[in-house]
DNA sequence: GAGTGGTCTAGACCACTTT
DNA sequence: AAGTGGTCTAGACCACTCG
């Protein structure tokens, strides 16, 4: 395949078409790790677009880490694998689909309660404002995997309690019915030991290792829309992260502290 | 503070000066969550730069998530906290500095061994190629926190074994002495139970929960330079992640699988 | 209709790398 | 000197949002 066939009709942005062509060549192995991409100049003349447009295409590939550019040298395919398993904001169903497991959810509770303590704090609610609480047992390939408790401000989705089937995808419903798209989530991960009811529900021995997640999900605007506390079996679940070295430009310096 | 004082002398790029001014106004709280940024047009005319330059400044703020843009509306400060504690590629010393703890390292072993099994695989080495192995007990505020085993190809830093003081920062040495800057790392996190020698070194009871990390670090070009296996006490260590919703443009589809 | 960001052009000069 | 990416200009048209 070669760089050709740019559609100027305007249905797809030019830089996006170029980006996709390059991405495809990398994905197919036609461009391998370490190989140089066509230079901005070459793309520009070959496809009859301006250099800024060619540049946009390459820059967007740099942003996802599969390409890197060096001033004076060129742009090259990086050796990083295109992993599909890195930890992202995913619904349980999406996550299971990625790892090829069959998801199932068993509702353990679904009610409306006043926000209190950490829930109110996380969701920026006044105490006593109502939240929808949804407890579910998450099951993968018929084996219990985790227990999740979600809390969502009732005011964001007033009739969710009446109309939502707790065996289906919460994220999909929030998006389709209320226009709420979760964009970012902050999570704290702890490791602990299973005990009592949790061990029983997860069908593991007391004292088995578990992950404990505390997650707050946000829409792009930064408003918190969901607080989740969950416990996952460590024998059947692991976390895969891709960590990046933060750009020094945005390094947040420690606030000066006397003493 | 206002948008002023652009230095056209060329020592700092214009877009970077603008980006820093905006960042500073947000950091100081002069622009708060939800507030609109000056429009691209306004920045352009007020500072006498082209619109593309103003746009570059805003886009770079979008990339780190503290600003978001909506076509037809404008660019706004997002409500996300500027967290300095999200999991990044950090050396132990850097990580401790961030959380305000005093780091210490006690060497447990420092030798050169042939790469085998998972180490060879991770670092793309032939079996029997030499790797430098460094085992260290990591200590925070005088309390044992974790045990780390690092493996680095000897060919990348031939005389490291002879000259490196294992109580100091490995990353800093790699960068300063060999020009190796780690840019990205992939890690797998598991939860398990402490036992035997590890429990003893960490001074915790057998059966206490621990995190088990397996990390491969890469330079920007994608070459693997370090394999690390470590065990951390779960009672004194937790993980803080910021997860993002992946852009559908780069979603990697499941490879078709028969059956 | 006016204002916004999204895309695009056709140039330009610069810093950096390689020959 | 020639080629590369990094920055920058001064325009342009478009899609979208809001009054």
What gross morphology of chain A would you assign? elongated
The amount of helix of chain A comes to: 25-40%
Average pLDDT over all residues of chain A:
89
How does the helix and strand content of chain A classify structurally? alpha+beta
Low-confidence stretches of chain A: 253-259
Note the gap between the termini of chain A.
64 Å
Structure characterization notes:
2 copies of one chain form a homodimer. Chain A contains 8 helices and 9 strands. With 259 residues, chain A is α+β, with helices and mostly antiparallel strands. The first copy, chain A, is elongated and about 65 Å long. A 6-stranded antiparallel sheet of chain A has the order 3-4-5-8-7-6. In chain A, strands 1-2 form a two-stranded antiparallel sheet. Helix content of chain A is 26%, strand content 31%. The first copy, chain A, folds into 2 domains: 14-77, Orthogonal Bundle (Arc Repressor Mutant, subunit A); 92-233, Chorismate lyase (3-Layer(aba) Sandwich), CATH 3.40.1410.10. In chain A, helix 1 packs across helix 3 (51-63). The model of chain A is unreliable at 253-259 (pLDDT under 50). Chain A binds a DNA duplex (19 and 19 nucleotides) through helix 3.
């Amino acid at each position: 395949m070669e760089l050709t066939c740019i559609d100027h009709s305007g249905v797809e942005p030019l830089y996006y078409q170029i980006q996709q062509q390059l991405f495809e060549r990398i994905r197919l192995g036609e461009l391998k790790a370490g190989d140089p991409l066509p230079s901005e100049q070459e793309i520009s003349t070959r496809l009859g677009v301006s250099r800024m447009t060619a540049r946009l295409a390459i820059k967007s590939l740099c942003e996802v880490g599969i390409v890197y550019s060096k001033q004076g040298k060129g742009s090259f395919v990086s050796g990083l694998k295109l992993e599909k398993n890195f930890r992202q904001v995913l619904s349980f169903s999406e996550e299971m689909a990625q790892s090829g497991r069959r998801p199932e959810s068993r509702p353990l509770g679904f009610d409306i309660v006043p926000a209190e303590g950490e829930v109110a704090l996380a969701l920026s609610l006044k105490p006593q404002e109502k939240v929808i609480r949804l407890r579910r047992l998450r099951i993968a390939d018929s084996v219990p995997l985790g227990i999740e408790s979600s809390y969502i401000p009732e005011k964001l989705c007033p009739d969710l309690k009446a109309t939502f089937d707790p065996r289906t995808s919460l994220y999909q419903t929030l998006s389709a019915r209320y226009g709420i798209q979760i964009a970012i989530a902050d999570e704290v991960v702890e490791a602990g030991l299973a005990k009592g009811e949790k061990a029983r529900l997860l069908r593991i021995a007391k004292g088995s290792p578990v992950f404990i997640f505390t997650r707050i999900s946000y829409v792009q605007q930064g408003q918190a829309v969901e607080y989740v506390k969950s416990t996952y079996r460590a024998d059947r679940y692991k976390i895969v992260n891709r960590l990046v070295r933060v750009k020094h430009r945005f390094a947040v310096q420690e606030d000066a502290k006397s003493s």
